[in-house]
Amino acid sequence: MTETVHNWEDHGYLATYIKKNGSFANLRIHPHGLVLVDLQSYNDHMKGREEVDQLLNKVEERMQELFHGNIKRVKRLPAILRGGVIDRYWPTADGRLVEYDIDEVVYDEDSPFQNIKILHSKQFGNILILSGDVNLAESDLAYTQAIMGSGKEDYAGKEVLILGGGDGGILYEIVKLKPKMVTMVEIDQMVIDGCKKYMRKTCGDVLDNLKGECYQVLIEDCIPVLKRYAKEGRMFDYVINDLTAVPISTSPEEDSTWEFLRLILDLSMKVLKQDGKYFTQGNCINLTDALTLYEEQLSRLYCPVEFSKETVCVPSYMELWVFYTIWKKPTDI
Amino acid sequence: MTETVHNWEDHGYLATYIKKNGSFANLRIHPHGLVLVDLQSYNDHMKGREEVDQLLNKVEERMQELFHGNIKRVKRLPAILRGGVIDRYWPTADGRLVEYDIDEVVYDEDSPFQNIKILHSKQFGNILILSGDVNLAESDLAYTQAIMGSGKEDYAGKEVLILGGGDGGILYEIVKLKPKMVTMVEIDQMVIDGCKKYMRKTCGDVLDNLKGECYQVLIEDCIPVLKRYAKEGRMFDYVINDLTAVPISTSPEEDSTWEFLRLILDLSMKVLKQDGKYFTQGNCINLTDALTLYEEQLSRLYCPVEFSKETVCVPSYMELWVFYTIWKKPTDI
User: Fold this and answer.
1) Chain B residues whose beta carbon lies within 8 Å of the beta carbon of residue A75
2) Is B242 a known active-site residue?
3) Has this prediction a pTM greater than 0.90?
4) Which CATH code for domain B2-66?
């Protein structure tokens, strides 16, 4: 083992210990008493990890001896696994480090629009991750229920428009409720291809055909479709916006995210019946600035609207999520 | 900046860069092409973190240049914050690293039985952590509902025994349902003291007095209480075991966790009416071995029992949790 020691004048010291097998450890001692030990090794198998644990036990014991038991706090964090085929770390929307119990890469492809991953989690089932963003897991019926109005709506005989929703979750659940017609507009055929194969618990068989008795799926950018419907005067009882948080579109006309969001909202309101409802996901509850900005957009639409919001626990998100219901302000009679 | 480089014969190389301000970086290059960069600095404020982000942006750009854009995958993880007053890392029962949005230490005391922490999370409210184990957050009504039978039970006019439950959540919810009498047996007065002050959303005012119109709280080890009740022939409609996963008891007679669990179960069955129900939390859904072992204990009780289980998403746990319902096997008529 090779030892290298660096002494700062005012900042304590750093010792690096290098082993012949390629592993190494840093021991960083700060003058105010904080001691950080990092061990880095290259192991593919659990055996290596057990050895590391035993080594750390010994380090901890020795430290307790050296400090005569005067250590106030000891905390050992689980090892961070990097560089393998399986990436277990998908930070939350509010930037926290969370490790998932992912044990298999089920699907990993780049579409013309985004990177599409479907990863298997032992507890959540398959998880759809679009461009690094956890979208939906097979465990997340709570998401689909929330964006459909939390069971308080009667979809029977209704006209429904879904924007995005390529995982098929919303479509699958609404079709069960005997709507008149559901139109889903999803830009990315490859999301549908991946989900119909690997997100079966979410979409059932609804994506096996792009057309059913009471639904159709259009593989298109929703902006021109919305414009067409608005022009034709086609109206819906429900518009459900399930687009990704970071917008993708073939229309280059809108530069900023907020302008794009407002365009979608304005167009959606144009095709929404006077007593219709618009449902969408908002953001993680901790991103209060983003939520406030979103609500400000709602006061800037072509027609006055009102809204309510609900906070829901979506299992695979590991953070609470806000969902919005928006409707046209009733006109004076 | 000081640079130290170590070359292994077969394991690539490690460069350490040390800055005058006490921060340092490791650059570990493995022969098969994995490059790991770790930066460690001592910063109390966000400004330092922004600087670190900018530095890492530059490192990433430079790496892309050096490799002529031939980098297959780049992943940057959020910084791990160590050594501060606030500890944001409370690994899951299945050993995963998860970061909580904790911004305040509300309560931190050692009782004769355990360490009691109540930490504030922006999204989950206050979280009770007993000896490092996340017990319950103010957001976790789902836990209390699950361990009460998920809304399928009628507690009106019933005799209920709660084992543990010091956060007051179960007691608070059951008292609303007009039971005949609820007896709660909690060993640790300090848990009650902390929770009645800082877990108000969970326990309401129910812990303000240890006795109410239809409830009493006994500050005792539940083992002797159960033995006393069994001897007296006192029977309950519901027994709810909300004891901590790792048992604490003043009775030294039971060595192993499983023996202790079986003792509790046996004694609970003795005070449970023939048509009564016993509810308890099991474990995280991924710990299948522990769940199987628990279920094996159920076949080794003094009387035959049957059970069902349910998997529930408890918001602050960041993993799915299994709850059990156990009842005495109906006798032949």
Assistant:
1) 82, 87, 89
2) yes
3) yes
4) 3.30.160.110
